[in-house]
Amino acid sequence: MFARTSIRLGRMATTFAQRQAMSTLNQQAKPRTSRLRQIKRAVYAVGLGAASYIGWSMYQTRNPGEQEPFDPSKKTLVLLGTGWGSTTMLKNLDTTNFNVVVVSPRNYFLFTPLLPSCTVGTLENRSIMEPVRLLMRHKKREVKFLEASCIDIDVDSKQLLLERRSSSDAKLTGKGGADEEPLKLNYDYLVVGVGGTVNTFGTPGVEEHACFLKEMDDARQIRRRLMDSVEKASFDDITEAERDRLLHMVVVGGGPTGIEYAGELHDFLEDDLSKWYPELVDRVRITLVEALPNVLPAFDKKLISFTQDTFKENNISILTRTMVKEVKDKTFIVQNPDGSRSEIPYGLLVWATGIKAQPITNKIRQKFPEIQTNGRGLLVDEYLRVKGAKDIWAIGDCALSSYAPLAQVASQQGKWLARKFNHLSNDDLITDLFLQMNAKTRPFKYSSQGSLAYIGSEKAIADLPFFNRNITAGGVATFWFWKSAYLSELLSLRNRTRVAIDWANRWLYGRDLSRE
């Protein structure tokens, strides 16, 4: 009897302990379950918010609102160009204060930092092109666009002479719409943001035989010549010397553009050409020619060394202290560091060495010969006003100041000038906008956001300011930072989506080898 009672009591105690333990576990599990529910709700909320934002942005892009018409009582502000400076200014400008007219031979903004990616099919061309009318149509007051080139200016009567032509027309015909009667356009205020054109430094044969990397048409031409060279090299009835010539790709210029193109070209060979042209890929050579002692002279020495080591691993030859003296149809002549000259055969030669002033920039400069004495562009003061001129500003690569001709400089200048115009009154009592700017604004000051460059093999380099010092980094992690930085800098959600999809497509399916 006593034993049975003891067994029952033991079982009751065990059951009670189990229940207590289960209760304790349930109490501990409740906060965990609650946390999981909170995390799920947060994820759902973020997803819903992102989807709503994307949907609303798409709706706004496709359905612009009504705009105020041109007001004859307002003054006319003309923007020349659709590059970094002019487009950024247009994006940030309050058009209710002025009648705004944009003049450019191209009707789109080109995100030039990613242009090398288009030459090998990493990105599709239209992914980095933003139609200017998309920006114009979303302004409060109507903005007019004229697809034309400014060929002359009368600074006394404030009148521009325009030639009705597009950049593609000029490429195809060599004269565009020169046979048509020029158009005259009056302005009250003029902002010159026409950028620069390729500088060949007078080297014979460059214009006739080399490819440039400045505009989208240049990227298309490089892609065509690249695929032509590869396809011609695949024929069996050519000599081995001719095959080696066709498969020698040359980049002239060791700045960021030349370095990034060489890196993109290497990736194209390794990732795609090796699969579809296995018999040719081992014979392809890439050579980079630079006249200075080092490539990337604006970057930190550690990053220069890292880039050179990466290129060496990727079998990209670097010829420093080497000047190109002449470019022929199938060969180019260089002056070596010791002063001797060599003739080197090539299949594709890309010229990425620098810029010079556009013709209209020189036209404006010639109106003020005593002040505008620098042939590289327009001298401007600390308020970005063209020295010697009245009611004319210059931004971007065509403006000569103490800053380097960089995209981020032009972008900051465009934002700064837009803000100043937004704060200025259009009252008829104000007759001198220059004096008003002196009284109300601080001079423009550039704030460096650092420098980035892609060097191939999913590696990039970064030279970033941090308080009073610079942070340098290079490698795969920097490559992902490079991608995220450029993705965020794209002008619209439309472009960001397209670029992201192109990157995904390249990873899934490889680059498109078709010749345009």
How would you characterize this protein structure?
The protein is of the alpha/beta class and 516 residues long. The chain has 15 helices and 25 strands. It has helices at 2-62, 84-92, 115-118, 132-136, 167-173, 206-209, 216-233, 240-246, 256-276, 301-313, 359-366, 407-423, 433-440, 476-489, 493-509, and strands at 76-80, 99-104, 108-110, 129-131, 143-147, 149-154, 159-163, 183-186, 189-192, 196-198, 211-212, 248-252, 285-289, 316-319, 323-327, 331-335, 341-345, 348-351, 355-357, 378-379, 392-394, 399-400, 451-456, 459-466, 469-475. Strands 5-2-1-9-21 form a 5-stranded parallel sheet. The chain has a 5-stranded parallel sheet with strand order 11-18-12-13-14. A 3-stranded antiparallel sheet has the order 6-7-8. A hairpin with a 2-residue loop joins β24 (459-466) and β25 (469-475). The protein starts with a helix and ends in a 7-residue tail after the last helix.
Characterize the main sheet: 5 strands, parallel
Helix content: 40-55%
Given helix and strand content, the structural type is alpha/beta
Sheet with the most strands: spatial strand order: 5-2-1-9-21
Distance between the termini: 99 Å
Arithmetic mean of pLDDT: 88
Oligomer: single chain
The number of helical segments is: 15
Task: Tell me the β content.
Answer: 15-25%
Low-confidence stretches: 170-174
- Number of E strands: 25
Query: What is the overall silhouette?
Result: globular
EC number: 1.6.5.9
Enzyme class: oxidoreductase
Protein name: NADH:ubiquinone oxidoreductase
Keywords: Oxidoreductase
